[in-house]
Specification:
About 70% of the residues lie in helices and about 0% in strands. The chain is mainly alpha-helical. Strands 1-2 form a two-stranded antiparallel sheet.
Length: about 180
């Protein structure tokens, strides 16, 4: 495999500047668009990694508190735990949806930056000629899905455990 086949050199057909307005002006516009695209791309990447650090840690901490509660059984507290697990599930789902949109914008900024590098005459830059994954299926999006789905599954499992505790204690009380 050659170097060219393991890198992404394809660019969008949409030019940065539609018409030529003067050589220096066009170059300045291209540079400005490139700098802005890279800046926003960095911000989106930062948000993504902060979410990926915070979400699993917060999920584990909150679920540990919910599931490790060894106080005497109290049905109202158990119902509150179910409410907390439902809330955690939907917050995680909302963050996943937000991150999906973030991924679309992230990919668009890479495309725009790749086009700007192409128009600026860059052969291989940060975006144009970006290396392909050397290992199949090792990409950002599947890894993100795994993190979000793991957190969603943890919230569901915790909610189910709390529900089973409520049912078990209700049946024990009814039979006593």
């Amino acid at each position: 495999m050659t170097e060219k086949t393991t890198r992404h050199y394809g660019v969008s057909n949409d030019p940065i500047v539609d018409k030529e307005i003067g050589d220096e002006s066009v170059k300045d516009i291209r540079l400005a668009v490139y700098e802005q695209s890279v800046s926003v791309w960095k911000e989106l990447a930062g948000v993504r990694f902060k979410l990926l650090a915070l979400l699993p840690a917060a999920t584990i901490a909150i679920l540990a508190a919910v599931l490790m509660d060894k106080n005497e059984y109290n049905s109202l507290r158990e119902i509150a735990k179910i409410g907390l697990t439902i809330f955690g599930f939907f917050v995680t789902l909302a963050l996943q949806r937000y991150d999906l949109r973030n991924s679309q914008l992230y990919d668009d900024l890479i495309s725009r930056s790749r086009r700007a590098e192409y128009e600026l005459g860059v052969n291989t830059g940060a975006f144009l000629g970006r290396p392909s994954s050397l290992i199949p299926n090792i990409q950002h999006d599947p890894a993100l899905r795994l993190v979000y789905r793991s957190c969603l599954l943890a919230w569901c499992g915790a909610g189910l455990l709390v529900l089973i505790t409520i049912i078990k204690n209700t049946l024990c009380t009814a039979m006593a």
